[in-house]
Amino acid sequence: MCEQANCVVVSVDYRIGPKTPFPACIDDGWESLLYCYENADAIGINIKKLAIGGSSPGGNISSILCHKIGSISSYFSTSCSPTLDRPCLR
């Protein structure tokens, strides 16, 4: 799919609980994002065409990163099945 879209895909192996509690996964995602920005030319990333996405817990992480990245650049966000609110626990 990334070949047809002519894009680079970076998959982050973020830390998960309970061994590593929150917000370690956010820290890992943020550090990975900064790495991509700082090394964009070397890894072939056009930072003006950035997209962040994830599925389920990755969707949550990508949503949080999009809030943080707003100060850096424009971006496109897509999340599949993020759990952004838990009304069943109210």
Instruction: Write down the overall mean pLDDT.
Output: 80
Q: How many domain regions?
A: 1
Number of continuous helical runs: 4
Q: How widely separated are the two ends?
A: 40 Å
What fraction, in percent, of the residue positions are helical? 40-55%
As laid out across the biggest beta sheet, the strand order is 1-2
The total beta strand count reads 2
- SS strand fraction: 5-15%
Uncertain segments: none
| Secondary-structure element string | HHHEHE
Major sheet summary line:
2 strands, parallel
CA radius of gyration is 14 Å
Structural topology:
Blueprint: H1 2-5, H2 24-38, H3 40-43, E1 51-55, H4 57-69, E2 76-80
Parallel strand pairs: 1-2
Helix pairs in contact: 2-4
Describe the structure.
Pfam families: Abhydrolase_3. One of its GO terms (molecular function) is hydrolase activity. Residues 1-70 form the Alpha/beta hydrolase fold-3 domain. The protein has one domain. 40% of the residues lie in helices and 11% in strands. The chain has four helices and two strands; from the N terminus they run αααβαβ. The protein has helices at 2-5, 24-38, 40-43, 57-69, and strands at residues 51-55, 76-80.
